[in-house]
Amino acid sequence: MNAVLGVGGGIAAYKSCELARALMERGFRVQVVMTAAAQQFVQPLTFAALTGNKVITDLFSSASAADTLSSAVEHIGVAQEHDVLVVAPATADLLSRLAHGGADDFLTTMYLAFTGPVVLAPAMNTNMWRHAATSANVATLRLRGHVIVEPDDGMLACGMVGPGRLAEPARIADAVAGLFLRGRDLEGETVLVTAGPTQEPIDPVRFITNRSSGKMGYALAEAAIQRGARVVLVSGPTNIVPPSNVSMVRVQTASEMYEAVMQNMVAATIVIKAAAVADYHVAGRSDQKIKKTGSGMTLELEPNRDILAELGRVKGERLLIGFAAETQNLEAEARRKLVSKNCDLIVGNLVGRDGTGFDSDQNEVVLVGRSGEAVVLGRASKRELADRILDQVLKLRGKCTVEN
User: Fold this and answer.
1) Residue 202 shares a structural domain with residue 326
2) Nearest to 5 by CA among 97, 61, 85
3) What whole-number distance in Å separates Cα of residue 397 and Cα of residue 324?
4) Domain finish residue from 149, 182, 215
5) Residue 343 appears among annotated catalytic residues
6) pLDDT in tens, 135-168
7) Which of 199, 237, 371, 372 could in theory staple to 207 by disulfide, Cβ–Cβ 3.0 to 4.6 A?
8) CATH of the domain at 365
9) Range with the lowest mean pLDDT among 38-42, 135-139, 177-181?
10) Residue 327 lies in a domain
């Protein structure tokens, strides 16, 4: 397998030396491409010595006149000869140029000619990572099907503490290798995923809801698509751009989600209920805005239908995966839910902790299956966890090739 390692101009470029070695240990031949800014942090000779291959540093090399034509189209040859493109560190500038189709150096020009899988490992200052422009660029790149290896939290070179530190090279290399180990192992499957919260109206301008962001469900849908599945995503209200090629069904209330799930489950072979559905709706909601009177107001709540329990009752030969968000006794609650809802696998996570859970891009979960074994998946991005959850699902099918 042949990998292009694009190195951007950030202080984390030194870690790309370790990443090159990690990729080689996983069986990749590595061709390094460096931006001009990257060369201010690491010398090309370092990568040449590590990989045994020349390092490409310029769109137009200092080739002789006889080699001018081959030099001018070298970016096309590199794009055609390699199986995967890895960019690490992917700086804010690089993410912007990739998202908007800039082509002013070898790396960005070659990217436009590359048709294989792309893995991007961002690294930058915390405020730059959180900026709306960077978030929009990352969303655009995700929509193209690229794998984003989320940056780690920690002390940054600028002295700030927070997200933005380049992920550990071994984690990036594992994400790259996983693309080839997993391949299209979900081809032939139709996966129904639910995501996000529901909103239960009080009146035309107010509603009750929960803190679910939908990020875990959307990550599962993206992972399943990349692994060859047909995916139907039933989503409550979120601000997330859905993955390309997904069949999207948008709903608002628990009742609407129930109807959408029951209608779309008929063709599904795997159902993953990651949505945080409201347990109750408001009885006798008002058709007009309720005026403030200065006195208290009591809401009468009625239970919503239990979608997961109904799925468990009628699932047949389908695999059913449920989620359990708990504040205590996680494993015990996951086991109880596994049995009471007739699921094949429960994904449990403790909510209310800093850095993981509803609003975060990271999570830490435990998987409880019918075998009785509890598999703890340490803190990682929700996109990484999505693949590991799907690995476990495929173990239930007896055809997973990746070890958790």
Assistant:
1) yes
2) 85
3) 22
4) 182
5) no
6) 999 989 987 888 899 888 777 777 777 788 899 9
7) 199
8) 3.40.50.10300
9) 177-181
10) yes
> What residue numbers bound the domain in which 194 lies?
190-397
- Global confidence as pTM: 0.76
> Is 150 found in the same domain as 271?
no
On whether the CB atoms of residues 20 and 32 are closer than 8 A, the answer is yes
State residue 355's pLDDT score: 61
17, 158, 343, 400: the catalytic one is 158
Strands 301-303, 319-326: pairing is: unpaired
Domain membership flag for residue 403: no
Residue 404 lies in a domain: no
- Digit-coded pLDDT (tens) for 368-395: 998 888 999 888 888 889 999 999 999 9
337-340's contacts with Cβ under 8 Å and 24+ in sequence apart are 337/308, 338/368, 338/369, 338/370, 340/309
Secondary structure (DSSP) of 268-335: -SEEEE--B--SEEETT--SSPPPP-SS-----EEEPP-HHHHHHHH-TTSEEEEEEEESS-HHHHHH
Give the C-alpha separation, 83 to 94, whole Å: 21
